[in-house]
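Entry for the shared binder. Reason: the reviewer on the internal report wants the predicted structure included alongside the sequence.
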Amino acid sequence: MVKTLYSLRERQAHEDTPYDTSTLPSGWAETIIKVVESSKPVDDGDFPSKHARDVLISQGYLAKVVLNGEQAGTVATYKGGYLYCQLVDIYPSVRAAIAFRRTQPNFLNDLWKAQNPAEAKHSEECGACGYTADPDCRPCSS
């Protein structure tokens, strides 16, 4: 189960209840980041996880679109935008969340470490590649 920083912290009374991400498969965070931060619809072959894409579509976070009579790819719905904001823990603007996330080169690593402090303590070198949250990351361990 992947919990977001937003769901892990104590929320103010005016904030929404976070989406339950326990039903989302691994790779959902990378997938929602890819789609929300893309300046155009994402082609089916350009997803970090096609299974996560399909689940996010089935739960209403993403949608396939047609533009100018052609299949254009996949975009985020408003619900997907809110999921992204929840992941990044910046509200209420998707634009502000994107700007913040882009300043965090090890965002996914830091998120993984916050959620898995016992494992992260034993894998301090992981994250040097700035991408994977896997403590057995081969690029980081070489």
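Summary line for the report: The radius of gyration is 16 Å.
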